Structure formats: C-alpha cells, structure tokens
C-alpha cells in the first residue's frame, strides 16, 4: 500500500510523510469516517500524531484531490479516498450509515438547473436520504412488540439513552 501512496502523494505535489501515510491507511480501511475516527485510527500506527496534524493532513489530501470530504446535513464531515468519479451517497436518517452509489449519469454536474442564472455549473450535490435495511428491520421488530402508535417514540427514546 505504502508505495502506491508514495506515488500518489508525489503525483499531486505533496511530500511523503509518516502522518500522511498513516492517515491514508486509516482512510483506506474506513471509508466515510469522520476526522475524529481517523485520528483514533491513525494514532494506532503513529501514536505521537496530534489531532491537529491529522486535521492538517486531511485538508492537504482533500486539497490535493487524493481524498474527498462529504458533509451530509447534521453530521460531521466525512472523508473517503474514492475520488474523481462523481459518485453519490445513500445516508440513513436514523443510524447515519453512508453507502456509495454510482452516479446514474456519470459526469458532474448530473443535474441541470431549470435556470442556471448565468452560472457555469460544475457540480450538483446529490444525497439520497432514507432508512437503511437494518433500521427498517429494527422498526419492523418494534412494530411487532408494541403498538404502531408507540413504536416510533420508544425507538427514539432508546436512541437518546444509548
Ligand atoms: Zn440505518
Ligand atoms: Zn463515497
Ligand atoms: Zn449523479
């Protein structure tokens, strides 16, 4: 893995450093992780790494186009190494699970505004919100145990308590 990272870092003009390699490894294992998760993961390989330096590495990787930052509403920014393919994300409203989905069109922008108002549009941000399969199953179970009127509020109560 390291030689690939070395090539990729150099290709975008970034110096090859231990922190950058550790963060790249952490990202490779955890797509769509937030910065704090990456800090924890990168510190396993590189305990001296400070959160600030991990944030700095993430900024550099995003700036160099090696990583992508996505910001689903209401969640911390998430990072991934799958870049340059205009893929979109399915996000679960309940548990926050994030899943990649190929763009149905391919190239950005895959949607055309009804009126571009003189803008040159280069991207349409597409996020598919819904309920993942696990959360649907959990809801169905709650529905069996309690009446449908209380199923929803008890599910929320457990979420807050957890
Ligand atoms: Zn879910
Ligand atoms: Zn993704
Ligand atoms: Zn698309």
Describe the structure concisely for a colleague.
By secondary structure, the protein is of the alpha+beta class. The chain has helices spanning 2-11, 18-29, 35-45, 51-63, 133-145, 148-161, and strands at 33-34, 68-70, 78-80, 88-92, 98-101, 127-130. Bound molecules: zinc ion (3 copies).
Rounded mean pLDDT score: 88
- Rg to the nearest angstrom? 20 Å
Strand order of the largest sheet: 1-3-2
Report on the biggest sheet.
3 strands, antiparallel
Poorly predicted segments:
147-162
Which word captures the global form?
flat
Report on this structure.
The protein is of the alpha+beta class. It is 45% helix and 13% strand. The chain contains six helices and six strands. The strands form two sheets. Strands 1-3-2 form a three-stranded antiparallel sheet. A three-stranded mixed sheet has the order 5-4-6, with no helix packed on it. The protein starts with a helix and ends with a helix. The site of one zinc ion has 7 residues, from loops.
List keywords for this structure.
13% strand, single chain, disordered C terminus, binds zinc ion, three-stranded mixed β-sheet, 162 residues, 6 helices, alpha+beta
Helix-strand blueprint:
Elements: H1 2-11, H2 18-29, E1 33-34, H3 35-45, H4 51-63, E2 68-70, E3 78-80, E4 88-92, E5 98-101, E6 127-130, H5 133-145, H6 148-161
Parallel strand pairs: 4-6
Antiparallel strand pairs: 1-3, 2-3, 4-5
Bound molecules: zinc ion (3 copies).
